[in-house]
Design a protein that fits this description.
The chain is α+β, with helices and mostly antiparallel strands. It has three helices and eight strands. It has helices spanning about 5-15, 60-70, 135-145, and strands spanning about 20-30, 35-40, 45, 50, 75-85, 90, 95-110, 120-125. Strands 1, 4, 5, 6 and 7 form a five-stranded mixed β-sheet that branches. Strands 3-2-8 form a three-stranded antiparallel β-sheet, with no helix packed on it. A hairpin with a 5-residue loop joins strand 2 (about 35-40) and strand 3 (about 45). The termini are far apart.
């Protein structure tokens, strides 16, 4: 996966220090109720489609860009599902990042799902009863989206 230019430039200034980054994740469903998944090229895991927002990019627009770039699918946003601060991540090269994840429920509009960039080795539509293994946070997000009532889920302060 290619690292966005703005991150390369930040890393040249801060090294491996923790970066706080906005990420977007799409739960894209088609008219048959299947979900769009991609198999990542970096670790082989099947996941929902997502990525990083570019500086100044609106979340919904960035999400739809990511879906198209990775899968050639045109989607539309139905609603925001959740806003979550994920656990920090340590990458193999020593870079540290923590993501603010904005997850959206989306609807397929057009396009045949296919690998459309180097971030995936496979892309496809899956019936909910026959999903490939998903990381538990991804499965929880899918389940949250499927029962979503249009009100975003977030951690409430105690």
């Amino acid at each position: 996966m290619s690292t966005p230019r703005f991150i390369v430039e930040l890393r040249s200034k801060i090294g491996h220090d923790l970066l706080w980054l906005p990420g977007v994740t799409a739960v894209v469903l088609d008219d048959a109720g299947r979900v769009l998944l991609g198999q990542r090229s970096d670790n082989g895991w099947w996941t929902l489609i997502g990525g990083l927002l570019e500086p100044g990019e609106q979340p919904a627009a960035g999400l739809l860009r990511e879906v198209y770039e990775e899968t050639a699918v045109v989607a539309e946003v139905v609603h925001l599902v959740s806003v979550t601060s994920l656990e920090p991540v340590l990458f193999p090269n020593g870079d540290q990042a923590q993501f603010l994840e904005l997850a959206f429920l989306c609807r397929h509009v057009s396009g045949e799902a296919r690998v459309n960039d180097e971030e995936s080795v496979a892309v496809g539509w899956f019936v909910l009863e026959d999903l490939p293994p998903l990381p538990s946070p991804q499965l929880r997000l899918l389940q949250l989206a499927l029962r979503s009532d249009g009100k975003p889920h977030f951690m409430r302060p105690e």
